[in-house]
Hints:
Elements (H helix, E strand, L loop, with lengths): L1 H22 L5 H14 L4 E8 L5 E7 L9 E5 L7 H16 L4 H9 L1 E5 L4 H4 L41 E5 L5 E3 L7 E3 L10 E5 L43 H12 L3 E7 L52 H18 L14 H8 L3 E5 L12 H11 L6 E7 L9 E6 L12 H16 L5 E12 L2 E10 L20 E5 L5 E4 L3 E3 L7 E10 L2 E9 L3 E9 L1
Parallel strand pairs: 3-4, 3-9, 9-10
Antiparallel strand pairs: 1-2, 2-4, 5-8, 5-12, 6-7, 11-12, 13-14, 14-18, 15-17, 15-19, 16-18, 19-20
Amino acid sequence: MKIAVKTIITxxxxxxxxxxxAAGQYRDHATMNRDLAxxxxxxxxxxxxxxxxxxxxxxDIYVLxxxxxxxxxxxxxxxxxxxxxxxxxxxxxxxxxAASIIKNAATPEIxxxxxxxxxxxxxxxSPDASEQFFAKLRYERNWNSRPVDFDRDFxxxxxxxxxLNGDGLVTMIRVHDSGGxxxxxxxDPRLMVQADIAKGQKGKYIVYTEGIDxxxxxxxxxxxxxxxxxxxxxxxxxxxxxxxxxxxxVSEPETxxxxxFLFDQWNIFATVAFGPQDNLTSQPRAGTGASTGGTGAxxxxxxxxxxxxxxxxxxxxxDRNTISVGRTDETVNRIISEKYIAATSVKGSPAAxxxxxxxxxxxxxxxxxxxxxxxxxxxxxxxxxxxxAAFLKxxxxxxxxxxxxxxxxIQHPGFPGKKVEVxxxxxxxxxxxxxxxxxxxxxxxxxxxTAMAALHPDVQIADVKVENTGGDIFRLTLTVRNNxxxxxxxxxxxPNRFVRIPRVTLTLEEKQTIITGTRxxxxxxxxxxxxxxxxxxxxxxxxxxxxAGDTACGVSTATAVLR
Length: 563
């Protein structure tokens, strides 16, 4: 009877989540957490759901740990959504992946995968910000609810956005003024572009975000609610005094809690983040391993054209601001990129989105793991054109619905006697697809993540040989092979003290002694589908236990009999 009830609960949870995905709904923080908590409760044998911390806004950062057996004792992948709050699709991809793999946990393919790999899914890392998508007043927000005095006038939150035309959206205002710096765009008359003085162009508009200069300091909406951007608060290439960077790197409870959690999971060998950065369709090239010398320098992840050189990142990582991708890591990344493109059928690449102190670069350069990131969706538009004009054309050709608020004249208290209009592209639409497209995007990324996970490092002891050299002395030789595509550790992680170096360990009987070699020795980094040989001279007959690897690349055991 208990088995039957559990089966019914599991089925209901799966149906509930499948219904949400089929309907193509974006879920707010509370709904998503309720759905995932119910799923975890119904499937305790394959997953655990827990809160890591509460944000400044009082919202929980949750993690869903998915796997079977000893989940911390086998290679792991961290899957992260909500890296920036306005990218609400990324939340659905991460949560949808978790729901799909749990739903399919009993199938032969996924059952085998979960016996070899653990997934750590953090679906919504910026809940204070992502909730703005579901609020009465919608605007693209990427910062949490920590009060910050952006204009440094010793008051916080005194100049927020306002909805001047009553449509529930924050768009733009344009003031007709001969002293303005904007003109009508030649690509689309609904848009404005900066006037080019060199071409003799004369401005006709002043342009601001929608709102009022509440504190009369000449700036509009510069000091609203919050905050600090999760994706600007990491240690790599951190920007001191950056607008949304926080008082210092890892200043926020959610950033620290996620960092602590990831550092505690020694078995994680790769992270996949769904956010604004992209290195799954546009691969950075290996460079010299040179480091940035201060603020403002672009990283190799932000600038794929890093200058060529001969050194690898692994040989030049003493500086915490190394900017080049390791050569062997570049090869692995290219293969993973091909897997992503094949699974998702994406076209082109998203617009470059650089950000100081972002998670993707931190996870590679400072955390020392393979790190991947993608927005999950973007309009396939021609590069080199006005991005907004190209998007409007794409939206019309692909039936994305109403994505533009027509310019409407209003009376603005800050510009008496002048013609002021409100309008522009709606918030969120350029970086998040219509809700009905979400299920197919989730499914495509599920296929990619499971295909990538199947390539995990997989250490196996092979070819154990014992040679009797005489005089009760034996030569023990063995081969450690990595059967996966991923190396036993990322090249960037080789000198990183937060990445465990795999080891080969011998367990001897009481009367045995090692003549040459050591009982415990570090393993050389082993590339995918490659092997490394180890040898010892040992005095004394008996049985020797052998253990090779570590949790991030797999652990293999064997025995050798000396006689």
